[in-house]
Amino acid sequence: MSELVTTRIRATAIKLGLPHLADALSAHLSRAVAAQMGYLDFLDLLLEEELAVREERRLRHALRISKMPHHKTLDGYDFFYQPELDPRRVRDLATLAFVEAKANAALLGPPGVGKTHIAVAFAVAACRAGFTIYFTTLDDMVRQLKAANAIGRLAGKLRTYLRPHILVLDEVGYLPLDRDEGNLVFQMISKRYEKGSIILTSNKAFSEWGQVFGDEVLATAILDRLLHHCEVIAINGPSYRLKNRLAAVETHVAVAG
Ligand SMILES: Nc1ncnc2c1ncn2[C@@H]1O[C@H](COP(=O)(O)OP(=O)(O)OP(=O)(O)O)[C@@H](O)[C@H]1O
């Protein structure tokens, strides 16, 4: 192909918003010539690669704006460390049927068992599948909603938590809320009810949520909406944060003995 035509295709690709195709054209041409590729295969290769590059860019952007603290996946989760947790159940949930159904998932258990890890793994899988995610701790969300409410901007701020397909609500129960704060959480949960998924993590049993939200009636109303369509996973095991420390102590005891 003449240099003139290549230059024209590159310019057209840029005008059409296909910058990767423009960049990679020469390299692809050489490969196509070397492999004696047919016209259709060549076009297929160009379009597939443009799509892959776009998808990668979309994913990077979506992960960045999700505010997730990391992007861990189930591949990095050691199920042997939590033998009471059924890996099939967790992997089933990672297929995201509950997200399609606009249902919720709750991960309950003591500190360090990997509740956030698994919540993020679900969210990363969902992000790959094209769902939008927003990650927050309960405490941070309440602070943001309170500040917005104080200046008459509650409705706008609520939208941050209502818009994404999935809201990851981390660390429910770590700090108790007063009744007004609990009420802000209720507003968010009732507006999301059957409209979008919440994946939450909590170190408190549902029976203790009255203390978390500063009011038994309010906690019941929140739980009623949250649990109507909800997958609950309880992880009862040791903290992974202590794994190496416990192993070191055991070695020390064995050596000393
Ligand atoms: N079974 C596991 N396999 C691999 N890594 C794990 C496992 N469990 C936890 N971790 C890791 O241990 C650290 C703590 O886990 P994570 O924050 O998910 O726990 P958590 O249950 O949410 O704790 P907390 O309630 O204190 O926030 C993270 O780095 C996480 O990736």
TrEMBL record:
User: Is Nucleotide-binding there in the keyword field?
Assistant: yes
Query: Which SMART domains does the record match to this protein?
Result: AAA
Tell me which domain of life the UniProt entry assigns to the organism this sequence originates from.
Bacteria
Extract the GO molecular function terms from the UniProt entry: ATP binding
Q: Which SUPFAM superfamilies match?
A: P-loop containing nucleoside triphosphate hydrolases
Which N-terminal residues, if any, form the signal peptide? none
Q: Which GO terms describe its biological process?
A: DNA replication
Homology family: Belongs to the IS21/IS1162 putative ATP-binding protein family.
Give the protein name, as stated in the record: AAA family ATPase
Give the organism the record lists. Spongiactinospora rosea
